[in-house]
Amino acid sequence: KTPISCEKIGLWFLKHGYGVSLKGRAQGDVFITLFQLQLSAESVGEVYIKSTKSGQYLAMDTNGLLYGSQLLGEECLFLERLEENHYNTYVSKKHADKNWFVGLKKNGNSKLGPRTHYGQKAILFLPLPVSAD
User: Fold this and answer.
1) What Pfam families does the entry give (predicted)?
2) Domains and CATH numbers, the chain
């Protein structure tokens, strides 16, 4: 299945205060976490998330484990929501009834879907535009 042509590439900032180390760079006492992803829209509010580095799609299995997939499938589709605080959250569409979010711990490791919930900083991402340079 090929997503529709609406794609955007950007940097995503993870909203953790201190100690985030996933390819982050220190600025004072705060670690800034930036990683480049490509989002492809399946329809309004439904996206595939692809790593520009590995070319793999983010997916969530039946246990809520995040993994990289070479092929698009129903485990790769996420519901994108802009929150009131202007951060984005991503819920697995396949497991939307369980409210399993994409989440990263302070150490940069992924959180299991069942251990995520609304209100956690681990699920908040801020898309930033990437210049053409």
Assistant:
1) FGF
2) 7-129 (2.80.10.50)
